[in-house]
Amino acid sequence: MEARRRAALALSCLYAALDHPLRVPGAALRPEALWAMPDHRLAAVLRLSRRGQGLLAGFRRSYSHDEALERLVRAGLSMVAIGDRDYPARLAESHDPPVALFLAGDPSRLKEFTGYPRIAIVGSRDATGYGRDAARHIATGLSRNSVCVVSGMAFGIDTVAHQSALAEDGATIAVLGCGPETAYPRSSRRLYAQILERGLVVSEYPPGTEPRPWRFPARNRIIAGLTFGVVVVEAAAKSGALITADFCLEQGGEVCAVPGSIFSRQSEGTNRLIREGAASVSSAEDVMDALGLDVPAPEKENRDAGLEELGEVEKRVMGVLGARPLPVDVIAGRAGTSAAAAVAALTALELMGRVRFEPGRGYSA
Hints:
The chain folds into three domains: 3-74; 102-291, Rossmann fold (3-Layer(aba) Sandwich); 300-364, Arc Repressor Mutant, subunit A, CATH 1.10.10. The chain contains 18 helices and eleven strands. It is of the alpha/beta class. The radius of gyration is 23 Å and the shape is elongated. Helix 16 crosses helix 17.
C-alpha cells in the first residue's frame, strides 16, 4: 500500500480514536503530509485539547498499520482514499472531505453509482404517514429516472428512501455514522443486508467504530458531498436533516423541501426552508427540474415492442404517455377516446406492466 493510502488509513483510525468531531483540512493537506507531522504540529492542525493531545500521542505509540489492514480485510471492507481514482470527485472538492471512505458491499458500485445523478433524501426519524408517502413517491420517481438515492439509513424518511429505491431495483447508497460493517440502527439489519446485496454502504469510519451521537451530524456532510442536491421530507425545527441541507448549501448544492401542514411540528423545518428559498417539490420531476436534470424519455424500441398485440385504444393511449404522469382526462383527450375507454385501456396496460399509476398524479409509461 502506497504512503498516501497508508496515511489515510492511519488518520481515519486516529480520528475514530479521538472520539470527538474534527474539521480536517483534507483538501488543503495530503494525508501523508498530515501523518508525517510531529505530534505538536498535528495537534495544532486538528485543534486538539490537552486530552486530545494525550490521545494522539498514545495512538501513535500503539498504532499498527498491519493490524488496521487486517481488521479491514477481516470485516470484508474496501477503502478508497482521497486522491484515488475512484474517490468521488464532488466529495473531494467539498470543504471537509474524509481522508478515506470505507465501503461495505461491492466496491465497484461506488464508481458505477457516482456515474449517475445522485440526490439525497433525508428527513425526520419520527415520520408521519404523509412524510413516508412523500418520500416513497419521490424516491420511486427518482429511481425510475436512473437517479442514485443517497440517505443515512436512519428510521423514518431515510429508511423509506432506501426501500423505495431498492423496490425499483435502483441505485442507493447508505452513509453511516459508525463502522460500515455494523447495521445501525440494529433493527434495520434486513434493510442493511438488502443494501449490501444491491447497493452500497459507506462510512468515513474504519471497522470497529461504535456509533456516537456526534458522528451522525458529521456524516451528513458526506451525504451532501456525494450528491448534487438534498430533498428534505419532513423536518422539525431542530432536525438533523437541516444540518444536511446546510452542508449542501455550503458545498454549492441545491436544497429542495416537501411542503407540509402548517399544523405539523414535523413540517416546521421544511416549511422554513421553503420560506428561505429552497425549492418546493412534490415529485421526482420537480426535484429534477430544480437541479436541472433531464427526465429521460422512454426508449422508443422498448415502448413500441409488442404494440401489435394491443387493441386500438390501448395503442393510442400508449402513444400519448411518457415519463411524466398524466391524469386520465388528459390521456383520454389526447388519445381521442372517452374517459371510460381510457380507464379500461390503462387498467389493461397496467396489468401488462406497460404503464405505472402514481396516486394523485396519474399514469406514465
